Amino acid sequence: MEQLLPLKGHHHVSAITANAKGNYEFYTKTLGLRLVKKTVNQDDTSVYHLFYADERGNPGTDLTFFEIPNAGQTRYGTNSISTTSLRVPSDSAIQYWKVRFDSLGIEYEEQNVYKRLSLAFKDFEGQRLMLVSDENNQGVKGGKPWEKSPVPVEHAIIGLGPVMLTVAKLESTALILSRVLGFKEVGTYMLQDKKVTVFETGLGGSGAEVHVLEESDLPVERPGRGSVHHVAFRVENEEQLRKWVQYLKELRIASSGFVERYYFKSLYFREANGILFELATDGPGFEGDESFENLGERLALPPYFEAQRSSIEAKLKPLDTKE
């Protein structure tokens, strides 16, 4: 990987919802994230793409959702992104969230995952989530919570934590992570009598870890509402991304090639078990078409879709996201 800088950690995770209004209510009012961009799926402009994050959508803090109104329920299985974790600052924050979840009637399971205090839970559509304490975390720094969040800043979510993959063949995914993407295998732990292998990149820590669980006896997951579409990893800039495009081409790994997403630049490919990976640049970010104060309040469209605004808006069910 000559001239390629190491991937910096997680950029974003993109999942599927069938209910944009309910999704907005849960991730902003219940989890306290900020909606930093209300836009459309650039590959299908008839559906919303919602970005929740820290105060300004810093790389590594984004959890995004495509709204597919007729999406069926996910049938959980292998070859999937099976848990998305969200970092909170401390063990005391985990205690805060236990009380909050109890008051809201949200079921959870307290766990110790890779020596971190954690709460496993699901959203209203069965999206598999986990809060992870950063009490003793070293490595990639978290983001900065929005001060207008309903969750106190000292307990608020500060970014993406470890992403868990469930795969039929550990060796195949491990090969892509280590030999192609430059991750390092750094440890293992047991989760419900199953071994999980931990890989990290860049500065490491919970914001740069992929946890891989091998489940060879499960059927392949059938995605729907409550499933994860893809995980994206951070690339420094466009120059580096174009080198990754060339590198995958040299390895004869099929990819999307360079993709302009306006808020960042991207590259997509599937690893050996069929999970979709994205490499995405840290910038330009979300303030090119909205001010910091007004992020997420209106339907934002990249310039190349602006001429189609009327027809795009006509296909979308109105979603009020102004505070």
UniProtKB/TrEMBL annotation:
<dbReference type="GO" id="GO:0051213">
    <property type="term" value="F:dioxygenase activity"/>
</dbReference>
<dbReference type="Pfam" id="PF00903">
    <property type="entry name" value="Glyoxalase"/>
</dbReference>
<feature type="domain" description="VOC">
    <location>
        <begin position="159"/>
        <end position="282"/>
    </location>
</feature>
<keyword id="KW-0223">Dioxygenase</keyword>
<keyword id="KW-0560">Oxidoreductase</keyword>
<dbReference type="InterPro" id="IPR037523">
    <property type="entry name" value="VOC_core"/>
</dbReference>
<dbReference type="InterPro" id="IPR052537">
    <property type="entry name" value="Extradiol_RC_dioxygenase"/>
</dbReference>
<dbReference type="InterPro" id="IPR004360">
    <property type="entry name" value="Glyas_Fos-R_dOase_dom"/>
</dbReference>
<protein>
    <submittedName>
        <fullName>Ring-cleaving dioxygenase</fullName>
    </submittedName>
</protein>
<dbReference type="InterPro" id="IPR029068">
    <property type="entry name" value="Glyas_Bleomycin-R_OHBP_Dase"/>
</dbReference>
<feature type="domain" description="VOC">
    <location>
        <begin position="9"/>
        <end position="134"/>
    </location>
</feature>
